[in-house]
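Lecture 7, part B: from sequences to assemblies.

Below are the input chains for today's worked example.
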Amino acid sequence: MPVISSKGKAMPESPIRKLAPFAEKAVKEGKHIFRLNIGQPDIKTPIEAMDAVRNHKLDVLAYSHSAGFKSFRKKLTGYYAKHDITISSDDILITTGGSEALIFTMGSITDPGDEIIVPEPFYANYYSFSTQSTVTVVPVISTIDNGFALPPVKEFEKLITPKTKAILICNPGNPTGYLYSREEIRQLAKLAIKHDLFLISDEVYREFVYGNSEHYSILQERALEDHAIVVDSVSKRYSMCGARIGCMVSKNKSVMETAMKFAQARLSPPTFAQIASEAALEAPESYYIETVAKYKIRRDTLVEGLRQIPGIKVAMPNGAFYCIAELPIKDADHFAKWLLDEFHVNNETLMLAPASGFYSSPNVGLNQVRIAYVLNRRDLKKSINILKLALEKYTDQKTIVVAEENITL
Amino acid sequence: MPVISSKGKAMPESPIRKLAPFAEKAVKEGKHIFRLNIGQPDIKTPIEAMDAVRNHKLDVLAYSHSAGFKSFRKKLTGYYAKHDITISSDDILITTGGSEALIFTMGSITDPGDEIIVPEPFYANYYSFSTQSTVTVVPVISTIDNGFALPPVKEFEKLITPKTKAILICNPGNPTGYLYSREEIRQLAKLAIKHDLFLISDEVYREFVYGNSEHYSILQERALEDHAIVVDSVSKRYSMCGARIGCMVSKNKSVMETAMKFAQARLSPPTFAQIASEAALEAPESYYIETVAKYKIRRDTLVEGLRQIPGIKVAMPNGAFYCIAELPIKDADHFAKWLLDEFHVNNETLMLAPASGFYSSPNVGLNQVRIAYVLNRRDLKKSINILKLALEKYTDQKTIVVAEENITL
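Predicted structure of the full complex, as structure tokens:
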């Protein structure tokens, strides 16, 4: 039998989706699952987007421009302008999700064996896309104890080699919820310029910022024009994960011309999804305000609830809609499976994302989970209660197992 | 300034799309362009597909399963059964266009430096996707003189090295229009098994077969189960190029499990497009019959017309909706630009795809173009007339230029 590639073998299973078979079994058994494992919001997609697709007048579903609809890219410049980001439509390439923006970025700036430095924990698929491009992820560990703030720049500097091509951040962070300050971004910008590296910023959660915090984009750093590449997406902003529309934004012409060749190869981004995404820009300001207000309440509910469970450590996230929680257990992978496979409270249980998949360093974060607060407050409260009861039972069980093992031994 | 990758530099510009700026200029100058350069059919998309999207009842545009809608994959097994292909829904992975199916396939079976043997001329983007995966395309030249039939198997065998992972064919062929016979497929199957290679077949034009010919899929070869990977797409079948829905089909479990990891990384294929593609399966049999009948007339019109232009050589295509024509010129790239830039007949001109982009061997096919017969008969006749007049004028001009150069020298 012909063999699969080393690359294919090295591709990680999604830590977010690898529990799917256990979830399917739980559903078959009649359990209801609160899905805190995946950033799939329950928020309604703007009606403007949904109606635009409902009212389409197409007879032929044709290819679009490889860079995406010109009209859409033009309107996007207005969207960015509202965020103090000044770009032209030529600085934007519409992609099939933020995923493709990352794949094009990696393809445009890295060759096999090159390295990208990434603060850890990081969005698990950065590792997948790096593997796909045969690029090495070099992690800089950030810790729950200071809320996953940017590690000192000297920690990055230590890791720079002739193979280093870029630093990749997610701002605000998935899975940490950490929002980088203007000062932190400037430190990274200086570092990127000093060592002539690209600075890639995944800003798909730009709007999801709580309290008095403000998002500061790498595209606002004038001196960084040749180095900055932003990865963006409509998925979270408009609760349109299924659209699969994102974009890559850079003022570096060589980068954009190169990315365009990757874009031409795959012909075009999906047409219906572009229609929806362009129309979503017409959603009123109140859409964002209400959405963010909802998430703020959810965040507060979640963190407050988690902090009342003995043994849980959690940092207050200032952005996105995730947090990392450290649980009083040893193996979150096992716990997450057990929740689906063996546990329920009145036929209800939880799905969590074990945080191990968000670290590339071995044996880090094994007792952590990522929780996506994408459910309404009532369901979140129920989920917190289930987690509390589960931890009590799981810890008991573990104690028993250990005791039995001791006896056997 | 940080530099782009060698891979990025090596990525070819799309030969189909690189003329776009010249076309845009021509349109601005008020010229009408008959676009024979790209496989964008004018055929209407099935109303079933368009209505399914118009009538969608979604409130939240959510991620789908990474492998695509289960319901869609199940229905697809029925579609394949009609083509004597027996597979289960687990053998199908829904992708974002045939493009992504190829990218997943290459990722699953090749590592940087590996080789794939491809009969040449081939679909230009095979070269792009190989470059993206840092894989080497090893061409086997097929010639216009026997209509681009499969080169003798011994020609393939000569090129097999320890780095060879697969043979990739397009059946029926883009850009050649050649339909491989059952006997040719069997020869390739034997070769793949003998050398333990994957045989990848791009069958996106499966229905577009003319006369008494029949399509024979590699999936119909029982002995090839572990070696066969089919790349498929709804783009041409239902005139839904803008959907960006395709699939990868294989009975090799390791391949499918590996491809699934690539699929999970990019989360899911586009939701609206899946709704449309699933509904397209409900299109009546008459949709295919009428479409293929139209293309047959177009093919006959085109080939007949081309054969009446002095100096043109063309092979009768038995499938897909392309043909390669050899023109009485030296440089089809220059000619194609000139058509857009300097030539018109009553403000009408042509867009052709220079065939050089479909060859990886240097200096082959320089006088050839690919013509997509995706226009109605009347427009095709006009196009043929424009080509005839253009060749007369271009040849004259070239003679003058050469004469002037001689004088200068």
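Note for the exam: Chain B touches chain A through 85 residues (CB under 8 Å). Keep this in mind when comparing with the next example.
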